[in-house]
Amino acid sequence: MTTHYLEPTQDAGRALFTRGIAGPVVMLNLLRFRKVADYSATPALAPASPISGAAAFQRYVDHTLPFLRASGGEIVFLGNGGPWFIGPAEERWDFAMMIRQHSLASFMAFASDGAYLAGMGHRTAAVEDSRLLPLVEGASAV
After folding, report:
1. Which segments of the chain are extended strands (E)?
2. How many beta carbons lie within 10 A of that of residue 29, not counting itself?
């Protein structure tokens, strides 16, 4: 059975906040899209005709940008994926995105905004699997 990762666990959330990250955080998102978006969980957001997962994710980005910017966040990078140069040949990621926030507190304020959450169904409909890795800028390897 393949495990898909779409939401953080409570343990992962607790671990993120116990890292003691002070200052900016960059969230590296790797996304695998559904061929056809699945709006069964949020039919009110569904378009009149079926769309691809990539198209549903674009709707999510369009909905999200005003809330991201209002929270002080910004998109650092958006890009299409492809085959790994180093990594498992059977694994693929369709899209990569990097989001910078001023702090974990501003990230959490953004992520818990009710108006933002009202459009989250586009992401749910779009994404088959994902990874989210918080990165700290300027950290050393030692």
Report:
1. 25-33, 74-80, 95-101, 127-135
2. 17
- Sheet strands side by side (includes 25-33): 74-80, 95-101, 25-33, 127-135
How far is Cα 91 from Cα 88, in angstroms, rounded to an integer? 6
Q: Which domain holds residue 102?
A: 36-135
pLDDT at 38: 98
Instruction: For residue 95, give the CATH number of its domain.
Output: 3.30.70.100
Task: For residue 100, give the 3-state DSSP assignment.
Answer: strand
Q: Assign 5 a pLDDT band (cuts: 50, 70, 90).
A: confident
Residue with tokens 């790994």: 84
Q: Is residue 17 included in any domain, yes or no? A: no
